[in-house]
Design a protein that fits this description.
Layout lengths: L5 E16 L28 H29 L5 E3 L1 H12 L4 H10 L9 H15 L6 E12 L6 H11 L2 E5 L4 H15 L15 E13 L11 E6 L5 E18 L4 E7 L4 E8 L4 H6 L3 H10 L1 E10 L1 E8 H7 L13 H4 L4 E17 L4 H12 L6 E3 L4 E7 L2 E8 L6
Helix pairs in contact: 1-4
The structure holds 2-acetamido-2-deoxy-beta-D-glucopyranose (NAG) (4 copies).
The site of one 2-acetamido-2-deoxy-beta-D-glucopyranose (NAG) has 3 residues, from loops.
GO molecular function: serine-type endopeptidase inhibitor activity
Family: Belongs to the serpin family.
Keywords: Glycoprotein, Protease inhibitor, Serine protease inhibitor, Signal
Length: 429
């Protein structure tokens, strides 16, 4: 049955941050125009005790999840009635990396905004946790192609603390490049080419209008591509309506399959939860609130709620309809994060003295972009054949779960939320 298409889930996410100097640089910082790129392809060396590493990784999980849901609330309230699409783990990683250079109130606010409590976890454990997380996420995993990484673009000639560079390399596998920010088009091209390459061409020209006084740009990317364990058949896909709200509907390509999935109906919150596993070690959780219940479900969106859903999932035979879609989200994160208490790092009061030894740095730009595509892909439909046979043998008529109105999506892998989204209108850009 290899001629049929299997679904294709592609997700690309990226955080770009740039750090500016608060003051115009002096002549001594002038670069000589010589472009030196230095890509120290640092690879994580798994050190010693795997159990211990595992624990490091698990320890940051709850904080990352708390941050994800808090950030969701901010993003959703700002974009009322719009699609939401971001990678929580990607944002957390970028700022955790910055924490290596943050001190005093700046550090404290960053820890709080990212839901870390130093009475429960030590700073070293946080960075160990991210190191382990990056290592786990970048491991080759059959069927899932996922890579996440960081890069620093540093003004050529800037005196970055060697300790900071060592730490970002050893904990965050960060590549460091020297950039000529005095020539913004050249620096933009260098950064955008890097991002484009790392995201396989899906995110292009993200960085623009760089100021010539930028000192350092921090980029974090995550690239995810996976295939459903139980694929949809292309010939089952039909045009159908998606009800954006009570007055608006759009035509979508609705995929359809009958199969066994973990499902749960939350009576209290009035929503369906469907878990769709990918090949390899990842799954998507679709949350479909009953009509008019989106707000109620969003308000209850906490890690405890998701855990409860996951524990309650029951493998059932269902008739599942899911639209094909491609959505993206771009966030100017400063306002969102300021609302979450992260103030100083973006202001004159910033203390990022761990980076250069002097306190003249602040984060003056922070952009996050995520793109998600749900598509069909033309290989490996063997598993679906088996499932159709199982469906035929089933006694009860399967419940119909049709994602034809706004729904939520959580993409998970080894306890991390790689991606979180609200699909209000699959046809909106
Ligand atoms: C690994 O670490 C765990 C917890 O820190 C410890 O209990 C265990 O004995 C260690 N194993 C080895 C082989 O060192
Ligand atoms: C830390 O911040 C406090 C309050 O913002 C300030 O009074 C103090 O001088 C700072 N300490 C250092 C070492 O910069
Ligand atoms: C940090 O954790 C301690 C111990 O669990 C708790 O008492 C305290 O309230 C927490 N602080 C914050 C800001 O959540
Ligand atoms: C479908 O997936 C395979 C990997 O399983 C990939 O090699 C191929 O290029 C994909 N085809 C399309 C049309 O995306």
């Amino acid at each position: 049955m290899a001629e049929f298409s299997s679904p294709f889930f592609l997700c690309l996410l990226l955080v770009g941050l740039s750090i500016h100097c608060q003051h115009v640089l002096g002549q001594e910082d002038e670069v000589n125009g010589q472009k030196k790129t230095n890509p120290p392809e640092q690879h994580f060396q798994a050190k010693g005790n795997t159990t211990g590493e595992n624990m490091a990784y698990h320890k940051i999980g709850p904080s990352n999840a708390d941050f994800a849901f808090r950030f969701y609330r901010q993003a959703a309230s700002q974009e009322d009635g719009k699609n939401v699409c971001f990678s929580p783990v990607s944002i957390s990683t970028a700022f955790a990396m910055l924490m290596l250079g943050a001190k005093n109130t700046t550090l404290r606010q960053t820890l709080e905004a990212f839901a870390f409590n130093l009475t429960e976890i030590e700073e070293k454990e946080i960075h160990d946790g991210f190191r382990h997380l990056l290592h786990m996420l970048n491991q080759p995993d059959s069927g899932v192609q996922l890579s996440m990484g960081n890069a620093l673009f540093i003004k050529d000639g800037l005196n970055v603390h060697p300790k900071f560079l060592e730490d970002v390399k050893s904990f965050y596998e960060s590549e460091a490049f020297l950039s000529n920010f005095q020539n913004p088009p050249e620096a933009e091209k260098q950064i955008n080419d890097y991002i484009e390459k790392k995201t396989e061409g899906k995110i292009a020209n993200l960085v623009k209008d760089l100021d010539p006084d930028v000192l350092m740009v921090l980029v974090n990317y995550i690239f995810f591509k996976a295939y459903w364990k139980s694929p949809f058949f292309e010939h089952m896909t039909q045009e159908d309506h998606f009800f954006v709200d009570s007055k608006t509907s759009v035509k979508v390509k609705m995929m359809h399959q009958k199969g066994f999935f973990g499902i749960y109906h939350d009576e209290t919150l009035s929503c369906w939860v469907v878990e769709m596993p990918y090949k390899g070690n990842a799954a998507a959780l679709f949350i479909l609130p009953d009509e008019g219940k989106m707000k109620q479900v969003e308000d209850a969106l906490l890690k405890e709620t998701v855990r409860k859903w996951e524990q309650a999932l029951e493998q059932r035979n269902i008739d599942l309809y899911l639209p094909k879609f491609s959505v993206s989200g771009t966030y100017k994160m400063i306002t969102l994060l300021q609302n979450m208490g992260l103030i100083d790092i973006f202001s004159k009061r910033a203390d990022l003295s761990g980076i250069t030894g002097n306190p003249d740095l602040k984060v003056s730009k922070a952009t996050h972009k995520a793109v998600v595509e749900v598509d069909e892909n033309g290989t490996e439909a063997a598993a679906a054949t088996v499932i159709e046979i199982m469906v035929g043998a089933s006694m009860d008529p399967p419940p119909v779960i049709k994602l034809n109105r706004p729904f939520l999506l959580l993409r998970k892998n080894i306890r991390s939320i790689l991606f979180m989204g609200k699909i209000v209108n699959p046809k909106a850009p």
